[in-house]
Amino acid sequence: MTPNISNPDRDCMTPRWEPPPVGGAAAAAPCLSRIEPESPSAGSHLDLDGQIEASHRDDEFEGIIGTSKALRTVLEQIRTVAPTGSTVLIEGETGTGKEVMASAIHAQSERRNRPFIKLNCAAIPVGLLESELFGHEKGAFTGAVSQKMGRFEAAHGGTLFLDEIGDIPLELQSKLLRVLQEQEFERLGSTYTRRVDVRIVAATNQDLGALVMERQFRMDLYYRLNVFPISVPPLRQRPEDIPMLVAYFVRKFSKRMSKRISMVSQTGMETLTRYSWPGNVRELQNLIERAVILTASEVLQLPPLPVRLPIRTAPITLADAERDHMLKVLEESNWVVGGKSGAAARLGMKRTTLMDRIRKRGLSREAVESGFAMCR
Ligand SMILES: Nc1ncnc2c1ncn2[C@@H]1O[C@H](COP(=O)(O)OP(=O)(O)O)[C@@H](O)[C@H]1O
Ligand SMILES: [Mg+2]
Ligand 1: does its nearest atom lie under 6 Å from the Cβ of 285? Predict the structure, then answer.
């Protein structure tokens, strides 16, 4: 069975672990008990298969995992725009899945049986970018030893995915605008005008609007690209997708490495869910690959994470700040709560009040040492 986007109606079939809401750990403890009936040793492990099975639907968005509202909104936008043939601009931090979304747009369009061509504008030296886009004739420049077709021609009838569009130098932007508007261009070193039928999906992790203000990006090109913008949210804004992604990547890598890994500890999953993931899904995928390499049993062994992991940078509430400060003081007092130099005295609280807050917020030394809870 292919793991895929969930049908929310089916989610209740398998009890699943649910992460605490963004911005605080307060709700963690009550959620954890939900998975206990499934755990081999009560309350300590999660069944990874359960995370995926509960999320399975059809093949509409194959390879896109997650059921968060934020992700479902993006998928709904893809569903809407894909068949129209319009230009799409996908914005989002690195590793959020922009390329995956671009490919889904192509796959759901009328052009799905024609080429899907990619070009990462940031990865090509500026001097070569023009020839990559439009092609060149033999002798067009030093080193042009033979004729070459550009990506626009290669994508004829299909979709051209222009990744990191914000990195296109100004001098090329006008040529790009022309081909977007007129669907025509010339190869370098040629006067013959070629016509193409190409749908553009562009992506950027920069704020193109800000680049326009700084005169780094042409306003007319920006408007031409910004016909249907889609913003892919960072992983820290959809932590509820993390358990499912973990399960998916564990399955993917354990299959490749011929291992049988079916569980992850609750603490481990908490650690993963609370981390801020600056590198988004790509970073999570790499971490799980490393974990699978390290694992020799059925329980996923997470690599030691640095204690001072950056926790989510998104809105810091007063409750977050209080939790962070409590953790800091608990660490400094070596988790000794009572006594003259204990954390309670340092925080100016009664020992029983602090104990109560620690319990309510589900804080523990173990969780900190496994990396999730430390403040900046
Ligand atoms: N929702 C998702 N489900 C499964 N894999 C994902 C998802 N989002 C991203 N990935 C994977 O994460 C990696 C980074 O995604 P990519 O589309 O290249 O990100 P971006 O282009 O935004 O940097 C890829 O290996 C991709 O397959
Ligand atoms: Mg990318």
Answer: yes
